[in-house]
């Protein structure tokens, strides 16, 4: 398993966000996570890439208990997990190309960018925007740039938090196709979204497990959603 | 080159790629440059003070330790006889290399600071001074005083001890104060750069968050700030040293004006001390920024 949550709970500010939550993700699987706002979807994702640690239970990332990971080990884990946020989180003083290549730079592999970077920018349709700054991009372009940055290290897992939250339906479809392509290349994909239409659209393209976080519990959602 | 050494050097020089990840921040850049320049400027004068007092202490200790003075106070008609007797006695005293009476010209020069030039020394009832230069282990002052009392009753031996020691001690204290000043300057530089680094880290919290998200280690993030502050401190200190060095060069010449204050400065190889100031400032900045960055990064997580 690439990620395993075993009876995990997370409390914040004296209140329990969720508890007794278990989840396993096999290599190459595709998961959607849905649920109402404030249910803890983003927190659950953060537990999966080591930004937070569970207040109870055990979270194992690539077989390692996240509580026992050193700070450097957490950094190494994040190099194997590409993360796409709704607000993208770019360094606005760098160009799009430099932002996309940032994971290579921080891992001392900047020299490997070259053709890979060009191919990746072409894959997400941003070749013409490579020299632009992130604030100059549209919402859809920013999301695609964030996806390119998430996959440039060829990670094992792609985690996307509301990746279509700020973009139109057509662009959402395009982004979904990119995620599906990555999954078909063997990557584990975990997408948190409240966009049920996106999940329905994905059904025809990929075999995805749909999870719903509601009332502090994680449920496997029915096909009717 | 060993891996350890290579790692240390890479920490010192930082990572250009990491440096580029952090946007330039004008305020902390100028604060660091100005602090380093000002502190280096002060360090130049503290160094000048230390080296000057070092020379002074050595000179006083060396010159005064090997000489002493015999003062003969006698009626004018006995002055020549007592002086001759004292010279004879000194010439037979073990440990005395040379004994000679000061000339009227030399006595006039000694009194000139108080009485001005053209003092008629020969007409004034002032004591005759005999300069004694020692050799080997020196003479026995107790024995010499006893013999002088018996043979030259108007002679008073001054072996310089009573005023040489306080002078040398004062010079040593001044030298110590100079070094303490340099240490305080280094500590102040470190404190200022720590504050500037913390301000830069706080201002770049979002940048740090993004770098962490994509897998940057604390060491990598810190190196971006360390490289920047180290270079700024070196450049600022270089400017400060140049300005301080020019200031020292324009101090009045020792030979012309005389005195301790005009001797403040560097001689010969002592100028090399100035070359050490920018690298030391860079080292202080490196350590201060590194410590501040790692502490800040731990607190932010």
Level of helix content of chain A?
A: 25-40%
The helix-and-strand class of chain A reads alpha/beta
Shape of chain B: rod-shaped
**SSE ordering of chain A:** EEEHEEHEHHHHEHEHEE
What's the structural domain tally of chain B? 2
How many helices of chain B? The count is 11
Structural class of chain B: alpha+beta
Q: How many runs of DSSP E, i.e. beta strands of chain A? A: 10
Main sheet strand line-up of chain B: 2-3-1-4
Radius of gyration of chain A: 17 Å
Radius of gyration of chain B: 31 Å
Most extensive chain interface and residues per partner: A-B, 24 and 21 residues
Helicity of chain B, as a percent range:
over 70%
Please supply descriptive tags for the structure shown above.
heterodimer; A: 225 residues; alpha/beta; six-stranded mixed β-sheet; 8 helices; globular; B: alpha+beta; 2 domains; 11 helices; 71% helix
Compose a concise summary of this entry:
Chain A has eight helices and ten strands. Chain A is of the alpha/beta class.
Walk me through this protein's architecture.
- The complex is a heterodimer of chains A (225) and B (301).
- Chain A has a 6-stranded mixed sheet, sandwiched between helices. Chain A has a 4-stranded antiparallel sheet with strand order 2-1-4-5, with helices on one face.
- The radius of gyration of chain A is 17 Å and the shape is globular.
- With 225 residues, chain A is an alpha/beta fold.
- Chain A is built from 8 helices and 10 strands.
- Chain B is α+β, with helices and mostly antiparallel strands and 301 residues long.
- Chain B folds into 2 domains: 11-61 and 173-300, no CATH class; 74-153, no CATH class.
- Chain B has helices at residues 3-13, 16-21, 26-65, 76-91, 104-115, 141-151, 161-203, 205-213, 218-249, 254-257, 272-300, and strands spanning 67-72, 96-101, 128-134, 155-158.
- Chain B has a 4-stranded antiparallel sheet with strand order 2-3-1-4.
- The radius of gyration of chain B is 31 Å and the shape is rod-shaped.
- Chains A and B meet through helix 2 and helix 4 of A and helix 2, helix 8 and helix 9 of B.
């Amino acid at each position: 398993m690439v990620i395993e949550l075993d009876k995990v709970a997370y409390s914040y500010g004296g209140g329990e966000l969720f508890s007794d939550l278990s989840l396993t993700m096999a290599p190459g699987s595709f998961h959607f996570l849905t649920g109402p706002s404030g249910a803890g979807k983003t927190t659950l994702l953060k537990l999966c890439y080591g930004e937070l640690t569970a207040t109870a239970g055990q979270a194992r990332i690539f077989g390692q208990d996240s509580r026992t990971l050193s700070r450097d080990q957490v950094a190494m884990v994040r190099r194997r997990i590409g993360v796409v946020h709704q607000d993208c989180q770019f360094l606005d003083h760098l160009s799009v190309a430099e932002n996309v290549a940032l994971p290579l730079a921080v891992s001392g592999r900047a020299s490997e960018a070259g053709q890979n970077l060009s191919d990746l920018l072409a894959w997400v349709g941003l070749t013409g925007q490579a020299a632009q700054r992130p604030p100059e991009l549209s919402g859809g372009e920013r999301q695609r740039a964030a996806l390119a940055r998430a996959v440039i290290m060829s990670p094992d897992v792609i985690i996307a938090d509301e990746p279509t939250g700020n973009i139109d339906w057509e662009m959402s479809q395009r982004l979904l196709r990119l995620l599906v392509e990555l999954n078909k290349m063997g990557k584990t994909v975990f997408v948190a979204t409240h966009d049920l239409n996106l999940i329905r659209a994905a059904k025809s393209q990929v075999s995805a497990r749909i999870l719903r976080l509601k009332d502090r519990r994680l449920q496997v959602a029915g096909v009717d959603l | 080159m060993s891996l350890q050494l290579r790692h240390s050097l890479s920490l010192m020089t930082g990572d250009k790629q990491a440096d580029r990840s952090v946007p330039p921040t004008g305020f902390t850049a100028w604060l660091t440059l100005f602090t380093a320049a000002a502190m280096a400027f002060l360090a130049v004068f503290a160094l000048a003070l230390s080296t000057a007092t070092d020379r002074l202490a050595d000179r006083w200790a060396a010159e005064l330790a090997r000489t002493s003075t015999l003062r003969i106070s006698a009626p004018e008609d006995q002055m020549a006889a007592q002086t001759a007797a004292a010279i004879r006695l000194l010439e037979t005293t073990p440990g005395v290399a040379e004994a000679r009476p000061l000339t009227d010209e030399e006595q006039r020069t000694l009194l000139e600071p108080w009485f001005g030039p053209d003092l008629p020394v020969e007409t004034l009832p002032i004591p005759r001074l005999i300069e004694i230069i020692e050799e080997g282990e020196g003479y026995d002052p107790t024995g010499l005083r006893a013999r002088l009392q018996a043979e030259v009753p108007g002679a008073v031996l001054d072996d310089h001890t009573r005023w040489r020691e306080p002078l040398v001690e004062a010079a040593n204290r001044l030298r110590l104060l100079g070094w303490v000043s340099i240490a305080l300057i280094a500590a102040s530089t470190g404190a200022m750069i720590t504050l500037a680094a913390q301000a830069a880290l706080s201002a770049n919290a979002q940048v740090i968050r993004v770098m962490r998200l994509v897998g940057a280690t604390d060491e990598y993030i810190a190196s971006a700030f360390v490289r920047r502050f180290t270079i700024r401190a070196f450049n600022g200190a270089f400017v400060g040293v140049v300005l301080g060095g020019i200031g020292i060069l324009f101090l009045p010449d020792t030979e012309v004006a005389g005195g301790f204050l005009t001797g403040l400065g560097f001689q010969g190889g002592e100028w090399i001390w100035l070359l050490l100031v920018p690298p030391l400032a860079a080292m202080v900045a490196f350590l201060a920024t590194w410590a501040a960055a790692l502490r800040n990064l731990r607190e932010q997580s």
